[in-house]
Amino acid sequence: MKLLTHILCLCLALALAQSEEAHASAVLDRCQGLEMDAVTVSEEGVPYFFKGDHLFKGFHGGAELSNESFAELDDHHHLGHVDAAFRMHYEDSPSDHDHMFFFLDNKVFSYYKHKLEDGYPKDISEVFPGIPDHLDAAVECPKPECDEDSVIFFKGDDIYHYNVKTKAVDEKEFTTMPNCTSAFRFMEHYYCFHGHMFSKFDPKTGEVHGKYPKEARDYFMRCSKFSEDSDHVERERCSRVHLDAITSDSAGNMYAFRGHHFLQKDEGSDVLKADTIESAFKELHSEVDAVFSYEDHLYMIKDDDLFVYKVGEPHTHLDGYPKPVKEELGLEGPIDAAFVCDDHFAYIIKGLTLYEVDMKASPRTARIEHQLSLFKKIDAAMCRLDGIKIIVGNHFYHFMSKMLLIAGRALPQQQRVSQGLFGCDH
Ligand SMILES: *[C@@H]1O[C@H](CO)[C@@H](O)[C@H](O)[C@H]1NC(C)=O
Ligand SMILES: *[C@@H]1O[C@H](CO)[C@@H](O)[C@H](O)[C@H]1NC(C)=O
Description:
Signal peptide: 1-19
Number of strands: 34
Family: Belongs to the hemopexin family.
Bound molecules: 2-acetamido-2-deoxy-beta-D-glucopyranose
Function: Binds heme and transports it to the liver for breakdown and iron recovery, after which the free hemopexin returns to the circulation.
Largest sheet: 5 strands, antiparallel
Mean pLDDT: 86
Structural class: alpha+beta
Subcellular location: Secreted
Radius of gyration: 24 Å
GO molecular function: heme transmembrane transporter activity; metal ion binding
CATH superfamily of the largest domain: Hemopexin-like domain
């Protein structure tokens, strides 16, 4: 009896703990369609989404308390939220360049290198004369995207263009745009969020072109399934979320992996197909780390395991796999990226170290080839006849050869994944 009671108590405690956890994650799950209070990029260019007293960093993952990153936002306990936020980004005004500004009721906070600047918080009317309190949204707008280096402030359906240099305020009406609850400049584009939808707008005129509003979770969050009728191809083509892995097989067909989905583009075709990873690579399920193609097989790495699929319709998973990456390739997972060019060497990127693995050797070993010091991090890589593409966040860099990747002293021109690889037109 005593044991039974003990077990009962344990179960109760577990159930309680679980329901508490479920409650917390239900409140904080950005895939539930949250309306964000404020959105900005950090000094490092990472998107920050604010909701209540929480902060989501990047395009996926859980929330943290915003006071862990910005302690002083909490000194006004009754606030518990951020009205608006933006990152000043004007190289012409070095004293403010890259400062992050947060707006709470009638106060503005300025952070630089994650420290609150002396004298802040200040009244909004003191720092941005002519701009009202209790804002809905704010976004930076540097030249030439706006005529002058400006900040655009939103309150209800009122829009204020604030000239950073002269402090002149120009009130505008953006008649075609909904009232924004947060606004965001990302990759030189301007987005107005309202509820869990967003519209892309012209910062000078407020005009919205194209099919908007769209679902924010399709483009700015990495959520697996939330709406049955969302268009996977359109979403994946234009998503700003970084790829997990990409490869091109010997026939020139390209496969790109992101979260629960993958995109496929066959050689000689402009048609992009999207499907769930689950449907074509069931054993892998989702969230692959790196993929390379070798002799009609896709080698797919997830955590410490290597999955091998024979390319076909459908792809077939080889018996005996997954096997440990360590056993098969001679180095420990996790792996960041991998590629094979036109020979029998696989190049594996772990951190910024490039390893060479002779696929014909037995057992296979990983030889350190080089440090890729041109980069801070690498998400995915692919080699085709025309060279190597290294993918970092939403961008990629094209190297004509492995030699240039290793010995190059400067990064080649940065290109956008959505446009350059998938033909997204916006
Ligand atoms: C942050 O806020 C939480 C909840 O309001 C509080 O418990 C915690 O002490 C705060 N932390 C800091 C560093 O202020
Ligand atoms: C937009 O804001 C104005 C107040 O400035 C308000 O009157 C109007 O109802 C709002 N529109 C919507 C759709 O919420």
